[in-house]
Amino acid sequence: MTTHPDVFAPATLGPITLRNRIIKSATFEGRTPDALVTDELIEFHRRPAAGGVGMSTVAYCAVAPEGRTERRQLWMRPDAVPGLRRLTDAIHAEGAAASAQLGHAGPVANEKSTGLPALAPSRSFNPLSMRMIRSATAADISRITAAHGTAARLAVESGFDAVEIHFGHNYFASSFLSPKLNRRKDSYGGSLENRARVVRDVARTVRDAVGGRVAILAKLNMDDGVPGGFWLDEAIQVAMMLELDGSVDALELTMGSSLLNPMYLFKGDAPVREFADAMPQPVRLGVQLAGKSMIHAYPYRDLFMLEHARQIRAAVTLPLVLLGGVTDRAGMDTAMAEGFEFVAMARALLREPDLVNRIRSESGTRSLCIHCNKCMPTIFSGARCVLVE
């Protein structure tokens, strides 16, 4: 009889041990009005830590000022360390580990908000800022790569147990993987080996910066969800490259493009009216007129990334984190039986931060989240995440 790990048993992740195999995935928080930690942000992460997760991931710790999606987003600098230390202390006090998601928004950055130029592999248009995005130079790529290492060292100084490098959703590194967004003719474009250079160099830089002091995860897209974008066949090869490099301890698998098809990641309802209300003009008018053609609804089902993720699982021995529609004990057990070492939860924990403890106490407990996705438009309004039943 084949057995699988108990999702609630302690588990090793790189150099650290988590009290269980359940991770709160990085989600928009909207609680850093001055791009620094606040008491509200601390409470946002303390609650799922108290609620039983093994690790909570602090979202969008940008590695550079222009790498923020908007001006209120946290970015890694010495001034941020005291607040981040208070945050990690609060998570640790509840018995959970703390992870910092490090990344650069690249073409997803709204330069109208940050006041700094957004960067993409190739010149392109950003529908969020209604501006053209300039192509990153070799010097930009080198600077941003090095900034990931600096940010990782600051994360260690801040008391984080892990860092998660953002290689998804067409942020900077992910956009280089995309044949649709990366039309370069130099050594960063063309073949998959060239398009994967940024991802591999960033991961190596982070590893060199922190060694074995903290766990290193990478959030890797399996499918951009747009024609001509990065897709599973190449994602399998990139996962194999990262395993060969020995630069990461685990991969969290994801999908979708925050720039071109944001709802592909989430599944469920597409709240077009709420998206329009969250946007400034003239973007608001555009969403009102053409929102249904831009913001697509995808049917929700539990474990909706499993079919893609199985193919990554078959190709690598690296620990993998299954994300997407993990809402109950049955789904967690399925992930363990399929060979995934960890599961990640997002919307379910926004709705109910104590869900993990309740599932542990009563295995038949299910999430109350109905996948209406009305929490999503808060990303663009800068407001706090408010979930509507």
Can you describe this structure?
This is NADH:flavin oxidoreductase. Keywords: Flavoprotein, Oxidoreductase. It comes from Rhodococcus pseudokoreensis. This protein has 389 residues and is α/β, with parallel strands linked by helices. Helices cover 36% and strands 15% of the residues. The protein has an 8-stranded parallel beta barrel, surrounded by 7 helices. A 3-stranded mixed beta sheet has the order 6-8-7. The chain has a two-stranded antiparallel sheet with strand order 1-2. Helix 12 links the parallel strand 12 and strand 13. Helix 1 runs parallel beside helix 2, helix 8 packs across helix 11 and helix 9 packs antiparallel against helix 10. It is globular and about 50 Å long.
Which structural category fits the helices and strands?
Answer: alpha/beta
- What's the average pLDDT? 91
Number of helices: 15
Total number of β-strand segments?
13
Shape by Cα distribution? globular
Estimate the strand proportion.
Answer: 15-25%
Strands in their spatial order, largest beta sheet:
3-4-5-9-10-11-12-13
Radius of gyration: 19 Å
Major pleated sheet: 8 strands, parallel, barrel
How would you describe the oligomerization state of the chains in this entry?
Answer: single chain
Low-confidence stretches: 382-389
Organism: Rhodococcus pseudokoreensis
Domain NADH:flavin oxidoreductase/NADH oxidase N-terminal: 7-242
InterPro entries: Aldolase_TIM, NADH_flavin_oxidoreductase, OxRdtase_FMN_N
Protein name: NADH:flavin oxidoreductase
Give a brief rundown of this model.
The protein is α/β, with parallel strands linked by helices and 389 residues long.
